[in-house]
Every structure is written in structure tokens, then in C-alpha cells.
Amino acid sequence: MIGGGVAGCSVAYHLARLGWTEVILVEQHELTEGTTWHSAGFVGQLRSTVTQTKMIMYSAGLYPELADLTGLDPGWHGVGGLRLATTPERVEESLRLAGAGETYGLGLEVLSGAEAREMLPLLDTGDVRAALWLPGDGWLDPALLARALAAGASRLGVRIFTGVRVVGLDVAGGEISGVRLASTDASTASTASGAEEWTVQAGTVVIAAGAASGRVGRLAGVDIPVVPIKHQYVVTESFDVPTSTPTVRDPDNIVYFREEAGGILVGGYIRTPEIWDTAHPLEEPRTLFPADMPKFQESWESAVRRVPSLGEAAIAKVVHGPEAFTPDGEFLLGETMVRGLWAAAGFCVHGLAAAGGVGKVMAEWIVDGSPEYDVFGMDLRRFGGHARSASWARAKALDSYSKYYDIVYPGEERTAARPLRRSPAWVRHAELGAAFGEKSGWERVNWFESNASLSQEAGPLQEARPEGWAGRIWSSAVRQECLATRDAAGLFDQTSFSKLEVSGPAALTGLQRVCAGQLDKPVGSIVYTQLLNERGGIEADLTVTRLAEDRFRLVTGTAFGVHDAAWLRGHGLDVRDVTSAHACYCLWGPRALDILGSVSADDLTFGYMKAREISVGNVPVLAQRVTFVGEFGWELYCPSEYGLTLWDTLMEAGTPYGMRPAGYRAIDSMRLEKGYRVWGLDITPETTPYEGGLGFAVAGDKDFLGRAALEAAARRPSQDLPATDAAAPDLDADPPAVNAAAQDRDASAQDRDASAPGPDEDPSGAGPAANPTARDTDASGRRLVCLVLDDPRQVCLGGEPVRVGGRPASRVTSGGYGHRVDRSIAYAYLPAGAAPGDRVEVGVTGTWVDATVTAEPLYDPSSTRIRRLPDRLSMMG
Question: I need a labelling partner for 523 at 20 to 30 A (CA). Which of 263, 298, 712, 749 fits?
């Protein structure tokens, strides 16, 4: 363990608690003297993601355990916290946060300005429109917490060495093998002159070195994109502020404060942050910079307006130190590209609050292979190769810091360090007025503003924006793109999707082991499948195309390629990332066959979930008959150098048929109508295929990673239902009768229609939206269901609370408006007994909206539009 701050001490403690007896922690100074010691220590339990909130709630429960084990005070002050709102927009944000807080059971309250002042008379609340009161909030003394964690770790057998500097990391065959150490000179903190160096052999090494983590990682050739940024706060002289004073955040005025030693600690996030530009961060203990009060002026003036008595208080000290920020303001956790070398860094000012949770998930990850919580948003591997660029990381980190307290609207796009990665057709998208978004460095079309001027079809959202936040980042173009795809065709650029190839004699065997679906199918077959962890949770959701007997291509989400490739490599597969080698355009809609047929002489009538090599104009293309919008068509892959030509060819061919270029917002709307799941939202490492309604994708005729956990879950009594009512999956059972009938119908049509599915494909034809059955539930007693809101102007964005019978029951995983069905749609996990027709309530920005559990998919339930050739569809009327 490299680093003696709260991160290193917490990971060491939790590893020891899981039974690891050979753990060594080294710190070049004394404990906490790097980044931890000067933290302001704020703990706010309600965060923007489920996992962050869980980690902080876990941390709060850890403090009594530490006190009991060590007899030491962990420095916790549970005084509660106020979060102020002074603008209508901030009130909306507060109401959304309050809704999320209900789903966690945090017991928060929404107060008026007057009620906030009554709770804390020091405040001037004349401009406060609302305030959130979070009784579980408070603050920590960072040094006391780290020392309690270190003492707990020592009690459990961890050996701690201070005054020891890491001078090298030994790597052999892509794996960490040892750490080279040397004593430091106590007076200079540098390696002592003539000091003896020694090596500790270790197969697991965790870099938890705060702002110095990037430097330590480079010793092994690993890039950890930590950016040290200067952060400043002040502490006043005592003026008898009670120790029970709640913490206060005033984000509209970019300031926070709390009591300290009878005075007030005041901090803030300035708009013009400064990087600590040094090659050797934290080389000196307890590093601080000279006070910079001109830069702090805005925060101080905001604090004085909020607490007028501060105007007469003298400043006792200024703390201006380095904080370890990251490109997106989230932790950097997980295994690096060097096997066995891990990182627990990037605490970004707020990380102290989750230090216990960081230790928990890191220890579980190291020991068990995956943590209990879904930590992809904190996974070091969420970034691509561009994270190696110091200029990119700095630009993103500065942007993240400067907007730390800004309201972040779902779908809002940041502009720092853009554009970076661009499709071959990017120039054409720009010419068509594309509204670009960014994911994993890729410029992606959200919608084409040129489509907004098309004539409107009547519908509830013909002219009106949705209410609240859903209407803030919105364009009528999205509706037009959905309707064009329904009525003619849409052309979508999905070049950014990650493409991985696995090949060789052992490719099939290895993939069969890690994929829950059956991959042993003829060349040219496409299989929709999941990668599961040992608990049966979904680590990845992707398609696998068999290109040859010994060669497979996996297509996964834009941001998931590095993560998924690492997961596969960790299970012994040789993986090549070929994302940049291929452009991908998706042609979907009832006129797709006419359009593609006009520029290709090849037979295009091959079946659903099949792939063929064809030519489109002069371009060689791999056409995959698959969809993510519920319309007939293909994903069309070509080598990148042909990408612009292929786009131009398809646009020229499709325009006479009414085809429109379309973007990702239209895709998201249409996939909701079909019930297609999104990994990281609807399905995660914390959910199983059966809970997520994906039981049809689990093979019953082979062994695979996670199968034992699914079977064990099936044998456990349901948590929410009587044991006799628990709908447990039988992995070897035949499909239920309703799906068997659909299978027989489609199989009998196979001779007549080349697009009919084979008998071993998803028999319902609905893909992830297959009607839920007993095979789509396990003994956890919960299942992902579709909700339709009564008021179509109220649109969910994810995270909204769901009540059943007036009581908190769940939260929305994802939501949006379905333009083809004119419905406001949301998905949420409900008890397995929930059935179509059941009524629930959904909290949308403080308004409770009635909703109905509805059978899915809402659009084309029989999936005729996907599986049948369009000319047959028209003949059927």
C-alpha cells in the first residue's frame, strides 16, 4: 500500500478485515502529511450517483466500528447539514435531490429560508428560496480519521512504515512483481544520501498517494490522470460559534462553511483555478502555498453576505494546499493496465467523506474480483488512451473544478478539450447542423438541428417542451428523427461504439466461459449476451459476431471498451481493440431495404441476428442485421478510410426515400419504446439478467462465469415474496409456453421468409424487451418493469423516486419520451409481484405523477417490423 492518507489506510484496513494478513503500508512522510491532513472534512451523504451515496452512507456506519476496535476518536461530528437554494433553478435541483434522498432513506427535509434561519440564526436567509436539511451530514477531522483507520489496520496485522519512499516499481510480463524502497531524509523528505534501497516482492500493489499518484504510477509506465489543483480555505478566530452548528453549502455563491474551534471555516470553488505544476508533488511534508486572498475574495464576500458576523471576525489562518482532481471530478479506482497494480486516488476535495467506502470497494475488488457496488463511474479504465495526455487531463480537470458547484443538467455538454475523436463523417455532420455531444472523447451527434424545421406531426409534444429539467436540453428535431425512422429510415453514426476482437484456437472456449449466452453457432451469427461476475451481476452487455471459426467481434458501448477488454483479459482472453479501425453507420427503417438495395447488388435478405460481407457502392462492408431502435435494418461496418465515402453514398441513396440523418437522442427515445436495456443504468454489476428481464439471453446448456450464483439465488427464498411465490430461474428449463408458441410460429415461417429467426434465437423477437416471465425473475424478488406516466409532459431523466401504495419502493433507472407511441416512459425495479395495470407514483422534480406498470415493449410488441422483410410487412397491411 503506497500512501499513508485516508485512502491507503482505509484500503489496508479493509483488506485486513477480509483476511489478508501480509499487508504493508509505506508512507514517505508521517501518516496524513501528504494530501489528507489539510482537507476541510465535509461529509455530505447525498450525492449525484447511487454508488457515491452508498459509499458515504457505509462510511458513516464505519466510524462507530473504528471507535470500538481502536478506542480512538475517528473525528466524526454528526451536526447535520444545510444546502441552500437562492434561484428557481437551484430549487428545482434541490427538489430532485430530495426525491433521490427519499430512495436512500436519508430522512432529509425541504425547508423554507425562514426555517433554515431558525435552525441556524447566524444565517442571513433573505434571498434563500429553499434549503435541504440532511440530518446525517457533518464533518470529519481528517487526521483523526486516518489515524483511527491506521490503528484499526495495525490491530488486524497490517505493518505500517513511515519515512519510506517508493523509488521504483518492478514489472515483469505485464504484472507487478515488487516495490523498490528507500529511507527518506527527515529534514528534506528526499531520498537520504547514500540510503540503502531494498525491494519488497508483492503481487498486489495499491497506489494511494494522493496528488503524487500520477508520479508513482509512471514508475511502472502507468498513467493515472491525477491533476494537483490549488484549493484554499480560511479559518476565523473564535467568536463562540456553537460546536453543534450544521455544515452549510451555498452553491449559488460557490461557498461552504462550518464551525471550527469556535470560529468558522470558509471555503469555495473559484472560477479561475490554478494547477500545481511540479514534477515532484508532495515531496515535502504538509505542503502549503502562500495565501492568495485576491483569488479567494469572491468566496469570502459570499460568506460574509450569508453570515454577516463574519465581517467582524479576524482570519486566524489560511490553508492553501494541493488537492488531487481528475478529468471528470470522480475517483480513480481499480486495476491499472499492469496486472496487480491498483489505484485509489483522485479524491477531488469531496473524497474524504467516502474514504470508508473506497476502502470497502477496493478491498472487495482485489480479494473477490469485483466489488459489491457498481463502480464503473469511478473505474480508472473509464478513460481511453487520450487520458495519457497531460494537457487533456489538465483542461478537463480545470473545467471540472471551476464548475464544481454548477447545476449539471442531464444531457448538458461540456466543451473543454474538444473536439478530440471524430468519425470520418464528422465534417458532414457539422455541415448538417449537428448538435454534438461527447462521450469518451468522441464527438457524437445528439440531433441534427436541420431536422427541427420539418413539418410537425400531431402529438402531445408537437410544439411543447416537456416540463422541468427534461425540457431544458431539448429539440423538436429528435421527434422528427424518430418519426422519419418509423416511416422511412434514419441513418445513425455509431462509429464511436467500442469494437473488440478475440481470435485464435482458444477463442470460442474462452468466450463461452465468460459469456452467459450460447456462442457456439455458425459463422455469421450474432449473439446478444452479457458478461457476468461471480455474483451473477452484469459486468458488460454486448453483441458477439462470429466472423470465422476462430474469430469473434464484440461490440459494446462507447465508454465501456477499455473496461470490457480488461475484464476479458483478466479472464485469460487475448483481446484487440479495433474501434478506430472501423466506421459504423446504422440504417434502420421500413425503407432501409430499398435504400441499401439501390447501392448494393448483394443479397440483402439474410436473417435477423446474422452478418454478411457485402459491397455498398464501391465500399466493402460488413452488414449486421441487428437493431437498437426496433426497426428493420443493419449496422454497416467498413474500414475507417472508407467511412466518409460510405456516409455520402448512403445519404445520396436514402434522401429520395425520405431518410433522415439522426442522432443519439432519437436512439434513446426509440430504445425505451422497445425496452432495450442500457448498461450502467437499467442493468449493472449489482443486477442479474433475471432481475433485468434478460433471462432469455442466458444459456441453459453450458457452464459460464456467474452461473453458480444464479442457481444459488434460485434456491434461496425470495426476499420480498413467500417462498412458494418466488419465481426462480431454471437454467436448464425449456422456454415458457408463450415464447415457445412464438418460436414455433417463426420457425414455421422460416422457409417462406429469410428474415425469420432460427429456433435457438430469442423466440419472442423482442430482444431485451421480451415479455417478462418466470425466467425473468430470481429470488431477489425484484424485476425491472416499464412505467407509463399519466402526464406526458412530465418526463423522467433517471433517479426519480417511485412509490407503491404511497411508500418509497424504488428509483427510476432511465426514462424519456417515446415519440412513436407518444408516451412518457420510465423503467424501475419493483417487487416481482408487480403486474401490468398496477398503479404507482413517480416523483418528477417535486411533483408526484401517477403512472401505470405496463407490459413491454410498448412499440411493435410482436417485433414484426424487426424480423420481417419490409416488403412483406407492407403486404401484411
Answer: 749
